[in-house]
Amino acid sequence: SWSPKGHTPVIKISDNPHDRISVIGAMTIKMGEPKRFGFLFHLSPDNTNFRGHMISSFLDHLYNKRHGRINLVWDSIKIHTAEPVNLFFAFHPAIKVFFFPPYAPELNPVDNVWGYIKYNRLANFCPHDLEELRKHVRAELFRIQKRPDLLESMFRHTGLNLD
Fold it and tell me: What confidence score (pLDDT) does residue 157 get?
């Protein structure tokens, strides 16, 4: 930031300190040689927290994009076991669900994606409002979709093995 000489710079933040952008994402890995890494995401349209039906909608999108069997590995937060999510899995037996151990974000490659965007790509970004932030977050997520090499390195950083 800058200001005239002798004046302290002031950066105005949102009037609502609880404003946020909610995003859900999934790293996809198509097995075979070579392995192909991809990323799907969805931003909450109203910037509220995701609810069970929204998670189910994202899972449906994932299911339609990645035909066939899916092994879904995710953290064990409460929303991942909400009733609409469990119903979705009941109607989609081709999706096998596995959970990371509790409190193990270092094993979740999607957490590496969020960290990369937040602490690397947008570290010093100071948007004027939530809409400007949303636009830049979306652009960064599209950028990551085009970088399978970066996604692969984020997966390798977890130390997990695909074999």
Answer: 95
Q: What angle (nearest 5°) sits at the alpha carbon of residue 134, between those of residues 128 and 139?
A: 115
Give yes or no for a contact between 55 and 85, defined as CB atoms under 8 angstroms apart: yes
pLDDT of residue 138: 96
**What whole-number distance in Å separates Cα of residue 138 and Cα of residue 41?**
9
Instruction: Indicate the angle between helix axes 109-116 and 148-156, nearest 10 degrees.
Output: 120
Low-confidence ranges of the chain (pLDDT < 70): 1, 11-18
Beta carbons of 27 and 109 less than 8 angstroms apart:
yes
Cα four-point dihedral sign 63, 39, 155, 132: negative
d(CA 149, CA 136): 21
Distance (Å, whole) CA 103 – CA 76: 9
Write phi, then psi, for 77 (nearest 5 degrees): -75, 155
CB of 17 closer than 8 Å to CB of 144: no
The model's pLDDT over 73-96, given as tens digits with 9 standing for 90+, comes to 999 899 999 999 999 999 999 999
